[in-house]
Amino acid sequence: MPELPASVRVALWVTHAWSGGTTLTHAIERALPDVDHTEGLVEQVRVWRDLGEAALLVALPGPGDIGGLPRCGPIATDAAVHAGEAVFVAGLGGMLVPSISTFGSEGAQGLRIDWVEHDADPVPPHRIEALEPSQLERHLRRQLLASVEELDRIGGAPWADDLSRDLVDDRLGADWSLPETLPQRARTVIGLAGTVAVAAEIGLGSSGAVTAAHDATRSAALRRLARLCEQSLADATNAACAQMAGWVPIR
Description:
By secondary structure, the protein is of the alpha+beta class. The chain folds into two domains: about 5-125, no CATH class; about 135-245. It is about 55% helix and about 10% strand. It has a five-stranded mixed β-sheet, sandwiched between helices. Helix 6 packs parallel to helix 8.
């Protein structure tokens, strides 16, 4: 699958469609090109649009970190944390959480995503409108420098083998298949955060540590780096959606 979370791609492409950039059908095809079947997404997105929503937003929660989610019940929160992602609308309130699975016989399997609807509270507009891509980029770059310094202090190779390094190099400058109307500064932050998040995940799967204690320290640093990038990715996506929806001027 493309490395950006499905909810990020769906939020960007659906908001692009809602702003008149393309049809909803084409937007879903571009957002999920390798998904053979989706259930529950198109229908709910159409309802939200008919009721006046202009931007589809994203949350990328993790264990102990649900700050990006709209206020919702424990079942919805647990589902979003388990999935690691969700899309929601700010005006009416409401959230969709994806569940990814496969179907078909061995050797001929297809990929499907079921989007489960959950109640969620509306989100105050100022929370989204305050997200400024240039500030997000500066914050992300500062935090990346701090993370690199931390990994240097820990020592060892973050990407321990040739395959890991090749995978990281392959992602650098990757084509994320984003909407052409995506504001450039937000595009930069999304690309940077997405690339480093992938690199951190690859690093977690390939240890160059000498001892178990060193491995635990290194893994904790890489998990913090991945979490930082996921937070920046969600914020930059929502900033871009707010701009494409016309809530705020492109900055």
